[in-house]
Structures are given as structure tokens and as C-alpha cells.
Amino acid sequence: MTKRLLKTFEDDNNLINVLVPLTIDVDEVYFVYHHDVKSQEIKNCSKIINKYKNIKIYYKRVSEEEVSTLINEDTIVDVSAAKYLSIVLYEVALKNNLQVIYYDEEERVIKQYKDHKIIAKAIFKLTIEDIIKLGGGKITSNLHKALTNREDIELIYKTVDRSRNEYSQFTSFVSRINSYISDSPYLNNICHLNEKTIKKILCDEQYQNYKDLGLFEIKDNDLIFFNKNIKDAFGVSGTFLENYIYHKLLDSKLFDDVKMSNIIEFNDEQHKYPVNCEIDALVLKNNELLFVSIKSNKIEKTDLNEIKVHNVMFGNKQSKAVVCINSDISNQKPSVYAKAEELGLYVIDNTDFINQNLANKFNDIIEGNYVYERI
Prior knowledge:
- The chain is α/β, with parallel strands linked by helices.
- The chain is built from 14 helices and 17 strands.
- Helix 1 (about 15-25) packs parallel to helix 2 and helix 5 (about 150-160) packs across helix 10.
- It is elongated and about 85 Å long.
């Protein structure tokens, strides 16, 4: 007998649609609904399920009376969806002595409906790309390159930690250096500058602060960077903090996946042309996705709105929006901090960078342990 899963199609929460079929052992899935659903959502769910499992998937618009025609003696009924049709499914299951299950979003387990006993604790884990796909988006490229060499990463760590309390001065310094080298001849990590420019750098107060780190050195009229990767990082000052946060999260090993500086394309049925945006970081654990906006120095209320919109557009009910900034926002901009709390956004600032607390703060958001400061 074919083992069948019968469940209501949750048209506003595609994550729930795929987790149960991917976690439990079934041969086929019948998604039922009694109103119109977008064909693109159906396609997205099918692609993710079939990416991992070779099971048959059916989608049927049904009346209440037709539900009972879709069951067999090995049917499992999933009532996870908060829809009226789920009540109908439950009544049919009860009448035919079928197993009834549901996905508990808070505990992230699958339970038996009758006694709430856990029947599946190890829920199938999706990738970041999967969840973006379920939201109707697609990761197409990276705007900034993540460093991979361990020496480069440690240098980034030391640089950001050194400048944490005066980060705006550091980013200004990076921008000045970039303006000097942008039109200058170079070979790999060596830039040849004129004598006047070299003197400007030598007299720069920030150069004196950072020269012992070894980001670059000056020999005659040559500016010699640690390597070409560090030279390229000077092209966009924001890459320092992006790489710092990205690698701190990776090194913590607390998360299932972390991505940096992704370009996401969104193409809904109602849009003629795709919409593109950049997300500074994406962090995933237990199928909960964080959309992260990273700001080096300044943050305004418009920045909060932007990352919230991206979370709504590409995420789901379990995803969350986060703003990460290298300044003490709760003290410096209490109105922005309060607005973030009002919007349901999470804030991580440079006070959380101390004592390796950065990754733990991200983890608190996913685990529901984040506490806003009282300002």
C-alpha cells in the first residue's frame, strides 16, 4: 500500500509545506486547498521536495466532501496549516482512524496530534538557497568577495577589534587610501605612488595607529599591501566589517550556514521584470533564516525599513531581520533603536563584539533568547 501524506497547502508559509514531507517517510504527498493559489508557489515547493526526495506530489483544489476520496488506509494527515480545511482533514482522519500529525513551529519538531508526543525530532534541514527559493527568490551572485585565507581573516579580526570604538575614523582612512591608489599603477599588491601622496599617508594619524598591524607598508614610493586580497578590501571599506562578522559566525560553528553579500533576484507572477537587492549576510540555523544588514558607522530609520522589506519579500514566518552596526546605537541613537524594536527588528551593535559575544547574540535571536535593552 502506498504511504500517503495528506495536508492543506499553506500558501503563506511554504516552509511548513516542505518540512513534513521531507522529514517523514512517505511515498506521495497530496496538497489540498479550496481557494486559488499561485502556480509559482506550487512549483517552488515541488522543486525543493524533489531536490531531496523522489516522491510523487499532487496538488488538488477540493471541496469538503471530496477530501475523504483522497485517503487510503496508510494515509497520514498533517494538520500543521492554520486553515479551515485542516479541520476538515482532522475530522476525516478521526472518522477513518488515521494518524494525525503536525509541525510544532515553536519547538521545531513533528508531533502526533492526539497526545502531542514527538514523533520526529530531527527535522530535515534546508539550505539558505532552498529557503530563498521557497520565498520566490534566487541567489544570483555576490557583490563583495569573502576572504578565505586564514592569515587574511586574522588580520581583519585584529583591524576591526583595534578600531571598534573609533570605526568611523578607520573607514575614513580606508576611503582616503583607496582614493590614492584607485588611479595609480599597480602590480598585484604593490601600488606605485608619487612622493607627495606618500608624504600624505606618512603624516596621516590613522596610518600611525594602524601601521603595526601590517595592512600595508611603505618602501620608497611603493605602497605594499599584505597581499592582493587586502588591497582589494581597501576598494570598499564595508568589506572589512562584512568579513569580520561573516567569519566570526563561521568560526563559532553555531550555525548551519552563513553567506556574505548576496545578490537576490525576485520574480513574482505579478512583476514583468525581476527585482534585485543585496543582503549583507544570511545566517541559517534549524531552518530559521536571518536577513542581516551590516552598517559600518551610521544607521537611519530608512535602513531599518529596507531590511524589514527584504525579510518580508524573501523570507517566511520564521525568518527574522537583523541590523548589525559597529557603534553603540542604543546610546547614540536611542530613537532608531526604539524604532527597530517597534518593527520587530533585532539590533547587534559594537557592545556585542566584546569577548566573542557576537555569534552568541545571533544565536540568541534564532533561539528566541534575545532581550532588548531598556533605553
